[in-house]
Amino acid sequence: MKSRSRSKLLCNQMLQNLSYVNSNNAKLKRFSSLFTHISIEFRFFTCSLTDPSLKPHKYLSSFNFNGIAHSVISKYSHFLDKKEPKRYYFPNDASFKIPLLDISDVIPHVTRRFLRVLRLKPEDVLEMLLGFQFECERVAVKSTKVESLWKIFKCASEQYKGFRHFPKSCELMASILVRHGMFREIQLLLLAMERQGISMDSKVFVSLIEGYVGVGDLERAVLVYDQMRERDLVPSLFCYHALVDLLVRMKRTQLAFRVSLDLVELGVSVCEGENASFENVVKLLCRDGMIQEARNFVRKLMALGFEPSSLVLNEIALEYCEQDFEDSLRFFAEVKCSPNVHTGNKIVFRSCTRFGVERANLFRLKLEHLGFMPDEVTFGILICWCCRERKLSGAFNYLSELLSRGLKPDIWCYHALISALFKEDLWKHAQDVLDEMVDMGTTPVLSTFKILLAGYCRARRFDEVKMVIREMVNCGLIESSALEDPLSKAFMIVELKTLSVRLKRDNDVELSKTEFFDNLGNGLYLDTDLDEYDKRVTGILEDSMVPDFDFLIREECSNGNFEVAYSLTSEMARWGQEPSLSVISALLKGLCSTRSNIKLCSSLLEKMPKLVNQLDQEVLNLLVQAYCKIGLTRKGWLTFNQMLEMNLSINSETFTALIKGLCKKENLRILHDCWDFALNGKWLPGLVDCISLVECLCHRGMLKELSLTGFSSIAHLFVEELLQHGCALDQIVYSHLIKGLCKEKRYKVAFTILDIMLSWKMVPFLDVSLILIPHLCKADKLQTAVELMENVLREQTTSHSDFTKRFCVTGKAGEAAIVFQNMLSKGLLPDADIYNMLLQQFCHTKNLKKVRELLGVITRKTASLTISSYRSYVRLMCLEGKVDYALSLKKIIVQESKSDSIILYNILIFYLLSAGKIMQVKKVLNELQEEGFLLNEVTYNFLVYGFSKCKDVSTGMHYLSAMISKELRPSYRSLNTVITSLCDIGELDKVLELSRQIELKGWILGSIAQNSIVEGLLFQDKVEAAKQFLDRMVYKGLTPQSVRYDNIIKRFCCLGRQDKAVDLLNVMLKKGNMPSSTSYDSVIRGFCSRNQLNQAMDFHTEMLDRNLKPSINTWDLLVQQYCQQGQPAEAAKLLLSMVQVGETPTRPMYCTVIDGYRIENNPGKASELMQMMQQSGYEPDFDAHWSLISNLNNLSDKDHNKSSQGFLSSLLAGSGFSSKKDLNSKMG
């Protein structure tokens, strides 16, 4: 049963996630792989129904889930096919036409001329690129536009063999691609240029490298760098450092060193800010054991003025320590630098380990000669090693020197001295050292007392042992009862309990067994294995002479004290020691186990970077999972890559954690790479991981690319497939499915699923029901809505409020009132929100009776009236002419809510002005002044707009001036209204003055205001002033985004200012606004009136490409123009184009073109056109017939024999005559 419930949960979760998201191609592939895996792995689950009368359900273990998964995937495979984009009309289609139209709103003045050409010339492409580059520098251009430009560039080069772009075109294209980060396209461009023998400027390569570095694509960045160096091009310093930093981050030592060496060999002086990149390379070399390369590299850098930091120099010196201490000293002497304390201590400690304390001290003196400043740890190391080497006098000499330098010994020094004294049988002085330790402010710890116990036990001073135990009890380090033997406690602390040590008195007269005497002179001896006894206590003393941090950390890890263990690593580094791999592995595992300690893993590995390459796959897997768990996905990805380089095995948990982390970070490129690695590694996530991964893939905002359909479609198919296999599903599945379908607005399908649910006597969840009911009402499925509502209300009495609110939101006032009454009848108390929402709904339906009743209830219930309710009420009262009601309610509300008073006054002012109640508004303004309220920006905008609308322009201007003087910015609506009103009454001078003020402040005038000003100027025949005004708006960037110039385009065309009309049309296009057909018609007529037919046809073609329909007059005018210029063939093409776009040419159009062919003496073409005319339902007149027949004599005999009979017969047939053959057939 447990596995069934888990599997049922999985099924529901899958359907829920499938129902809530949209899909794209890449995600569906990944989702389908997860889906198939889930289907195979979990077969045992059942879905129960609420109706026990149903037939027993099949266990899904009997199903072929793999088959079901593949069946569903095959059924939704059509969702993967992208829909064809909307196809524009192109009479002479070419591969570059669609992208050309796409960029025409960026450079319309350029692209317009190429919409009718079949082939682009190199100079055409160059012109487009120049224009595009200019616009890119002025305004932000979308990347999609650049993609279209790139398509044009490619298509042009593929038009015909021998086409070659100008070098300047290639450079411009590259710079535009670089600006928009289209790196793949840049590389393709570079390859094409290389084939053509065109050299590219280094800036393109530099930008490409920087782009790849920015997205972390190391391989491509290095590839482009190598290409650049092969061409003897030099990257910029910034490019060099960006590439080096990435290589260091990815720990690619050889490549980082090679690139850095290239830069150094250029001989460029090194600035202070550039040190970090070089230092990181040096550290990387040292960590990989390339010490000689690091040293030579530093030498070259110093020759260029590079001053290496002490950290870098110490890194090199430490590596030398691994090989030869003398080399380390020589290096410090060479660079004239002294080691830091950390490095010096490590050198001293390693020297002690290898050569003994005396030689180590010689190294210390040499280091001091170089400027090294030893600290207490330095002398502590020497003291400890003297104690280990039984050179006690030397230890005290170093202690004396330490104290003479004003340093304070740490606890490890005292431990070493005490241990050495005990080992040299100088136990009497151990207490002196302990006393001095306490006097110096160092508190004894448990290990201190353990050394004392071991020493006194070794010296057989058991009275002192008892004293130490009492001191430990007093310090709270141990607990001991009065009945417990202190010696037994001591033996347990020093780990002697297993030896069963007993202290006995020698009763023999000759004292043959006596080993020592107590304070009373009694002969005593130890009853135990003395050799083992002495070995153990001596071992404690010897181990305490030099601190073994590796052992201490292991002990803390075994006790679960991982934070303490981590803190010991810092102390360990101070003492020049390094942890063993096993200890670090144990510590990392422990830190990874607790979320709060995971960041400590990162800092630990930063301190010990060499260890990463030595860790085993178990630890590294845990590290990746831990990093991803707390959001350090980048670190997890880097560690993952290191594992790949080391050929380590990566487990499924690591893949799952990394993929989930990358989903959250929304890094698609790395996510795809990781997914591919996971699939190749036979990744199989578990049940819980499957669910969480589905949630990540669906809900983390990863599906930002173009989506074609919802996953709820797939969920629907999955449900159908399960039902066909005899599986009955519960309300959870159906609810998830309906919710997803509603989210995609597929209500008809959702209603079908709902009907299935209701037929099975199931009801969707409350939240799903609340979503469905309003849409059921809109679809006139009131019976189903009421049934659903009643079902829910029976089970959920608290949902009355939710239903009432839902009905109010969807405008169903009647239904809301019914639920409200039902609620009151059951004794349920509505909250203030319900009262307010009902009031707003009744106001909307203008139900004055209900509004008064409900307002009375709200007042009696002392429920607060919201701003929205007040707005709805005031609006209704003003529309119905009941202003006094609005004013009286305002008095009540203002008294209750002083903080919102200005908002309430603003609402009242707006609706009073909307109703034309100017006098009441002035009274309200006086009241505002008396109450001491200051008008805000909203108030001023309402006043300017309202008074202007009421034709009281002078008052509107008064408040507008006051507003501007207070540095408040008027809204578009206010400015549009007041300027339009001033223009209507002929106050153009005031409008221009106001416009100048707005220009000076850099405010943008709305499209309506600009149109009003220009039309006013044109009305007064001030054409040049209108043109200058528009030019200023464009030059100063004061053109609104949603600008419309259609009316003034037409006006300028009528005035013969064709150039300005075209400029305005281009401005509209650049702002992303489609001009109307009328604007294009006006421009085309203007060019035709100037006999500029080519320009007219450019606009005509653009018009058709934008799916705009020219007027019949425009078609007629173009046909007339072509025929007047003796080009009836072009005119005939226009007629054909009309038919193709669904227009019917007029009879005069046909006649005009036929006359043109007749003038050209081309009866064949004329006859074809006459047939086309007849197909359009027109009959040629007699003159046209006779004219064509008479022209047959001009044809050659051969042509006559071939065509005259066909021509005549077709002509006569079209006119109602039948041939002889047809006549005979009819008679027969």
TrEMBL record:
Protein name, UniProt field: PPR CONTAINING PLANT-LIKE PROTEIN
Q: Which family does the UniProt entry place this protein in?
A: Belongs to the PPR family. P subfamily.
Highest taxon above the source species = Eukaryota
| InterPro entries listed in its UniProt record | PPR_P_subfamily (IPR050872), PPR_rpt (IPR002885), TPR-like_helical_dom_sf (IPR011990)
Q: Which Pfam families match?
A: PPR, PPR_1, PPR_2, PPR_3
Keywords, ordered alphabetically: Repeat
What NCBIfam families does this protein map onto? PPR
Residue ranges of PPR repeats: 201-235, 274-308, 375-409, 410-444, 445-479, 616-650, 730-764, 936-970, 1041-1075, 1076-1110, 1111-1145, 1146-1180
